[in-house]
Amino acid sequence: MTTFTLTQIATALGATLEGDGDIEVVGAAEPSSAHRDQLALAMDPKYADGLAKGRAEAAILWQGADWRALGLKAAIFVARPRYAMSGLTTLMDPGPEIEAGIHPMAVVHPSAKIGDGAAIGPFVVIGRDVTIGDGARIASHVSVAEGSTLGRNTLLLQGVKVGARVVIGDNFIAQPGCVIGSDGFSFVTPEKSGVENARASLGDQGEAAQQSWTRIHSLGGVSIGNDVEIGANSAIDRGTIRDTTIGNGTKLDNLVHIGHNVQVGDDCLLCGQVGIAGSSRIGNRVVLAGQCGVNDNIFVGDDVIAGGATKIFTNAPAGRVLLGYPAVKMESHIEIQKAMRRLPRFMKSLQQDK
Amino acid sequence: MTTFTLTQIATALGATLEGDGDIEVVGAAEPSSAHRDQLALAMDPKYADGLAKGRAEAAILWQGADWRALGLKAAIFVARPRYAMSGLTTLMDPGPEIEAGIHPMAVVHPSAKIGDGAAIGPFVVIGRDVTIGDGARIASHVSVAEGSTLGRNTLLLQGVKVGARVVIGDNFIAQPGCVIGSDGFSFVTPEKSGVENARASLGDQGEAAQQSWTRIHSLGGVSIGNDVEIGANSAIDRGTIRDTTIGNGTKLDNLVHIGHNVQVGDDCLLCGQVGIAGSSRIGNRVVLAGQCGVNDNIFVGDDVIAGGATKIFTNAPAGRVLLGYPAVKMESHIEIQKAMRRLPRFMKSLQQDK
Amino acid sequence: MTTFTLTQIATALGATLEGDGDIEVVGAAEPSSAHRDQLALAMDPKYADGLAKGRAEAAILWQGADWRALGLKAAIFVARPRYAMSGLTTLMDPGPEIEAGIHPMAVVHPSAKIGDGAAIGPFVVIGRDVTIGDGARIASHVSVAEGSTLGRNTLLLQGVKVGARVVIGDNFIAQPGCVIGSDGFSFVTPEKSGVENARASLGDQGEAAQQSWTRIHSLGGVSIGNDVEIGANSAIDRGTIRDTTIGNGTKLDNLVHIGHNVQVGDDCLLCGQVGIAGSSRIGNRVVLAGQCGVNDNIFVGDDVIAGGATKIFTNAPAGRVLLGYPAVKMESHIEIQKAMRRLPRFMKSLQQDK
């Protein structure tokens, strides 16, 4: 088990250390359940009681805490606790165990170029003309299809499926089971369909003939920037002619659906079960909370933030904070909801007035 | 093909048998499509006509039915038909075929401890120091990562991915493709982000700097009780410091998303596509219908029931029956919806009055 | 790289060609980014500027366009551009590379019958008594469980899992990671549960005892017609007694959930993240936009169209165009939404009148 001295941790966090920097810990824990060899995480005064219950000798504390009075032998003080969690967990994460080298039960096409220091697990399939940068870690059951390119420090976890015509930058992380480069969901009828009529008329599907769907194939690929992470069992479709694109620094949570031709900008967060329908464009630094939906062929501007399960049907201007089905400004949504809750009694009282 | 005598079935169900108990059936069927060697399921008088159309000689019947008049040679009577379905289908389910022993094309780490009577299929990967209890059935393409522990009678179906630091009790069932122990979706900016501002102010994201997301790694694991089932392609994230937990007897349907640090109690049902955001706590016997969403960092009390696609944004007290976006009491929701449907005409009539 | 002459393309599309039919292209592109050897797709006058920027010598053009004036050497004219995309992309799609024959690292049960011309990739598992028609293409990591039958020209992409008792017609396409034939989510308590009470009373769960869930197994299978496509990481459950069914020509997008016993008709489109709860019936030519939900045990009539995230709680008559939570006619939804947005000010003004 790896151990860390407090000095090591404080240095990694750029944080202030007081007390005995030679104390060694093997991990971090909540204050009340911390063992003696664990670092208690007590960045808020509300954790003071917990510290008394637990057995930690060292802690990360809130600014101004009196560590001696709390019975500790050392303490680390950080300016922005949540940000410190990043440094601490990065330091302590053992990471997935994938043996160095290429496992004998992996099938790697002879034309594939695998960078230095790669660790490729059992039952992995790497296709023709694939290029993977230095330092790749590829867990079991992963497939990377013909012609795709992945950058340096790629981490593909168990069962990830990268299709053909996918280009991904450096430091990519793919959680188990996600699919990058499935075919777009694009079908057309020989003559105009009821859906086309209903969309044009906002509700009237007219006299469309009964007809079957013909497939539009996805000739495009998927193009992903640097420092991107994709969640477990998410799916990203290839574009029809051009690529579906995801910008630098964008993170997708689990079970997210990205339709064909979608363009997602830089530094976005798309939380669990978000869905973006085909050909929509998402700006930079957009944050969509869990279960949000974005209609097809619309534009969501830079810095838009949408609360849980917001359904965005029309273009959203930059900087807007949205909520609701259909999405409206968060303040409007809160007002409307308040009014709606009063509505039944309000209508009754008005009718009595008459 | 396995056959069952009516006596066998009645005994397994603790039910009353009338007529010839030696009749053998090979399976169950709806009355109208039942073959001669199938047991018709006709627990309601509405199926009487179906019995006449089908060819079954025996049936499970509603209380008080006259089996002779229905042309049957035998009948089983049960008190609670839906509950009887459990006994019947458990008896008749042949279960997945997984050959006994460890398939030669499975990769099992020499340090792993596999219990007695295990059946492990082809292309399975079992990591370092994994422990799996007696009677495990593990289908093809499953992976169990380093250090994880699974109890007795574990059933992992095709392509299930169990990550590191996962502890699961007895009688666990995992449907194909589900992921247990993916990394949590937890990112932080060096300075306060627009999201933090917007949440604090309910809508105003202030003057946040343009900044990228830094990753908080998941040092915790996932801890799951006994008698739990997880649906196809669902995903459960590891906790940040402590474990994400799921209690005894809880069942998750397909495509369910459980965020990091979430605690789900005992005997809950989380239906298809439900999503629980990070650090929320779900009590015991909570039932969330399909596509429900639970906000992060909130509490849903014991025995809460939420109807389809309910979005729970705030703490829900024990026993509450919820519906809507945002969730309100089901009665209130029905009232509000009625009022809303009348609203356009109501507003028009009031304006004419003026 | 495959090349196509313009004559070839025009013939495939049944379209009119003007200019030099011997020009060869290697692919299609948007006008402004087209290389010299690519066919520009400019089916609308708005693309005229793009043509000037790009380097294409040939294009598919809008009706009546003057291709010479646009600086092209040849042009193809189509009556319904979107439909032409189908023909064009079908012609140009290289398809997934799966080597002919059965890969030595596939595990195919000796009793399985694989049709002529099959291409089966590495780490595929085909179970006992499986039948797969001629011309099958099966990518890596796929499993097909015991007794299942797939028709001609089956395409199963990476990591698809077909369970036992599944019957599928011809020309089936399964995107990576989808699951066909998981167990239904069906649980019952020994005595009446709070959910049963709440559903009966629309909100009151009564005095239900605290009890655990018992499993109803899925003895049925899944039955799928011809020309069906299932999206990435979607999941389709087996029926309890009868099969879950999907009709001819129906297409499912990514992350779609189909519960046990559900019947979906012919030529439906179920878009990304749609969920259909157990035992519901969906008619023919039904189109459900992304994130729609359908309650259990209801009926959605032929030609119903539902907009994004519509939640259908009750039977929907044929031909209805729906929107909203809960679903109402699209026109009603738009009216209600307009009224709701005015509601806060409306209530305030009325109270001032008093």
Describe this structure in words.
Three copies of one chain form a homotrimer. With 354 residues, the first copy, chain A, is an alpha/beta fold. The first copy, chain A, has two domains: 4-92, Udp-n-acetylmuramoylalanyl-d-glutamate--2,6- Diaminopimelate Ligase, Chain: A, domain 1; 102-330, 3 Solenoid (UDP N-Acetylglucosamine Acyltransferase, domain 1), CATH 2.160.10. Chain A is 16% helix and 27% strand. A ten-stranded parallel sheet of chain A has the order 9-12-15-18-21-26-29-32-35-38, with no helix packed on it. A nine-stranded parallel sheet of chain A has the order 10-13-16-19-24-27-30-33-36, with no helix packed on it. Chains in contact: A-B, A-C, B-C. At the A-B interface, strand 4, helix 3 and helix 5 of A face strand 22, helix 4, strand 23 and helix 5 of B. Chains A, B, C: Catalyzes the N-acylation of UDP-3-O-acylglucosamine using 3-hydroxyacyl-ACP as the acyl donor. Is involved in the biosynthesis of lipid A, a phosphorylated glycolipid that anchors the lipopolysaccharide to the outer membrane of the cell. Chains A, B, C: Belongs to the transferase hexapeptide repeat family. LpxD subfamily. Chains A, B, C: Its EC number is 2.3.1.191.
